[in-house]
Amino acid sequence: MPDPLIQPKVLAFDVFGTVVDWYGSIAREVDAMQLGVSGDEFALAWRAGYQPAMRRVMAGELGWTLIDDLHRMILGELLRRFGIAHLDEAGKKHLNKVWHRLAPWPDSAPGLARLKTRFMICTLSNGNIGLLADMAKNAGLPWDCILSAEVFRAYKPDPATYLGVARVFDVAPHEVMLVAAHHDDLAGARACGLRSAYIERPLEFGAGQPKDVSPRPENELHAASLLALAAQLGC
What we know:
Blueprint (H helix, E strand, L loop, with lengths): L9 E4 L6 E2 H11 L6 H10 L1 H9 L8 H15 L7 H8 L6 E2 L3 H9 L3 E6 L3 H11 L5 E4 H4 L6 H11 L6 E5 L2 H9 L3 E5 L21 E3 L2 H7 L3
Parallel strand pairs: 1-4, 1-6, 4-5, 6-7, 7-8
Antiparallel strand pairs: 2-3
Helix pairs in contact: 1-2, 6-11
């Protein structure tokens, strides 16, 4: 286990749910488009298709596929399921790119700015590079570097992703800390020798499905926000 008195050199961030509010952003945009469906239900259904789609890639049923393309595949299924038949191709493309326009949590940009004063900060997301770059530009996220499953051609929790961060920055695994709002992601990082920091996002799935964000003993750090994490790390 890494020495808790020695700080990491690189902070790698999960993005969807940890840094940006996918649920609220998608629900608002779907409602604004007046598609005749509940934005809440549509957002949750879209996200629910994410893991099964990635499993198809990891099982070899599909070749390597960018998250943008998986989102579009899931969207096609959802449009049929929800009975949305009037969207033309341009409308479908615009809706699929809602994932590029996700709003940050209020503490994200200022928290990252503070953490950046002391650490190298990067993404470690299953989202593809173009998606993450658009998101950063739209949301004002001051990354030093954008790392993606696309770089490693593997989705988290494949060890290639976590260890890939250490390789990119030429540091030991324990010199990298994964920051995420998902315990399974953090467990995958710790299994590869990385440090971990859990960020509370109780409303990731909306007010109707609050998450249990109580501390778990295996998490080295636990913070209510990125600003709180910055304070814990002396930023």
